[in-house]
Amino acid sequence: MFCFLPVSVIASDIQPARGLQLKGDMTQGSLIRGQVPVGHLVWLNDKPLKVSPDGYFAFGFGRDAELTQQLKWLDNKGAEHAQSLQLQPRTYDIQKIEGIPSQYVSPPKEVSERIQLDNRQVGKARTLDDERTDFYQDFIWPAAGPISGVYGSQRVFNGTPKRPHFGVDVAAATGTAVYAPANGIVTLFVPDMYYSGGTMIIDHGHGVSSTFLHLSKGHVEAGTTVKQGDLVAEIGATGRATGPHLDWRINWFKERLDPALLVPKR
């Protein structure tokens, strides 16, 4: 699934002994993980990236990201390098969903404060810039079941166009186990958010996080360190859902990425 881009592909002006590696799909919606030799600094479009002491870093491209991006790095000899990254464009499906209760399509004013609080809690959890480098693992699927929704698709609820879907949906019965897709630390668990119902966020370091929505139950609390494969929650149909499923999302800070690009295809 992942392609390691050797230095000869990434940039022609740097020697392999001082090389840079990236893994990930060069496309819209993709999380890219990289490694440079110790002491290197890296920028994406002039924005400095966190580089771990052993040279790991991450960045991501949103659903509608510009197709040309600029990666720069300063090596441990003081030499500057730059390379243009060309992304592949994507097309997205339109998903029409009927049977959504009206209060979830056009929520009443009395729930606006609750929605704002939910958004603040999620937003705060996704600002964490932890030193962990768990994001560099090969991720696993957090739950078993057929895929019922894909990243990027335009959602139409009861005939009303809404925001695109920013996760991948796994359909399964309420109570089906949800496992940590990679190592991390739980930064949020709220059992009853308005839209997303039971909501959990696991931070994987450097701004990379997994979010699980519509959970019926959580098995871990905020502050818990988890290992890949640990039981963390159970699938449900809470919040704005027409049936039990897991909505799994990947973020790099505010950038919403495609989880399906991180795991084996089904």
Descriptive terms for the model:
40% strand; Glucose Permease (Domain IIA); Immunoglobulin-like; 8% helix; 2 domains; 10-stranded antiparallel sheet; mainly beta; 4-stranded antiparallel sheet; 266 residues; 3 helices; 21 strands
Present the secondary structure layout:
Elements: E1 4-5, H1 7-10, E2 21-23, E3 31-35, E4 41-44, E5 47-48, E6 56-60, E7 68-74, E8 80-86, E9 94-97, H2 102-105, H3 112-125, E10 147-149, E11 154-157, E12 160-164, E13 168-171, E14 177-179, E15 184-193, E16 197-205, E17 208-218, E18 225-226, E19 231-235, E20 245-252, E21 255-257
Parallel strand pairs: 9-11
Antiparallel strand pairs: 1-2, 2-3, 3-6, 4-5, 4-7, 7-8, 10-13, 11-12, 13-20, 14-19, 15-16, 15-18, 16-17, 17-19, 17-20, 20-21
